[in-house]
Design brief:
By secondary structure, this protein is mainly α. The protein is built from 9 helices and no strands.
């Protein structure tokens, strides 16, 4: 049973959206947009309204590109905000991948090995994060941002240009795999939960020789 004096995460979200600074409220509503839009993306996809689906998907990826920048620009970052951002990111990519299943199943079957390997790595990363820190990781490393950007470009190219750019796909898959492996290592080496980590190189550099406070 939880601590009755500890505020619930629902109340924390309410504070984040309605009682934070004006800049933080705008940024958090932008982040929340991706979470709210996920069921709409699935709905329009199942209704075969691909035109609406792809423009909503573009808007979701665009908000992903700007909310992190705005949060750092106006110093409106928080652990809960980072968690919502990660959830929004994952749901957007999930919706786009589901779109591939619906519209490009032959491509999914052709590249099944890559998709399965990435999914297994993702499950290991999530499981290890919960095992080590009792929560989902929100590292938002530089490599994760790069992998997300390349993946977004690939996915949008499929729905807007109606073709598969294999070079983009393999680049996105490679970067995503390396990024997940980096997060797995970070989950192992970080003793305490941390959000918005630049990357493994910076974590090891911060620790320095002879230090044991990673």
């Amino acid at each position: 049973m939880g601590d009755p004096h500890k505020p619930s995460e629902f109340k924390d979200i309410g504070s984040l959206l309605f009682r934070s600074s004006p800049a933080a409220r705008i940024i958090n509503f932008i982040t929340l947009y991706r979470i709210i839009t996920f069921p709409l993306l699935v709905f329009f996809l199942l209704q075969e309204k691909i035109e609406i689906f792809r423009w909503l998907l573009l808007a979701s990826f665009f908000t992903d590109a700007i909310d992190g920048f705005l949060a750092r620009r106006y110093r409106a970052t928080s652990v809960l905000g980072a968690k919502l951002d990660s959830i929004g990111d994952d749901l957007t990519v999930l919706a786009a991948t589901f779109g591939l299943f619906v519209t490009r199943f032959g491509f999914i079957r052709e590249q099944a090995t890559i998709f399965v390997l990435l999914f297994i790595l993702f499950l290991i990363q999530v499981g290890l994060s919960f095992y080590r820190h009792k929560k989902m990781s929100t590292f938002h490393t530089y490599l994760a941002k790069l992998a997300t950007a390349v993946t977004a470009i690939f996915l949008l190219s499929v729905f807007f240009f109606d073709r598969i750019y294999y070079g983009l796909f393999y680049a996105a898959a490679f970067l995503t795999g390396i990024e997940i492996i980096e997060e797995i290592i970070l989950a192992v080496v970080l003793k305490e939960y941390r959000s918005n980590v630049k990357g493994l190189y910076w974590v090891l550099k911060e620790s320095g020789p002879g230090r044991d406070d990673i």
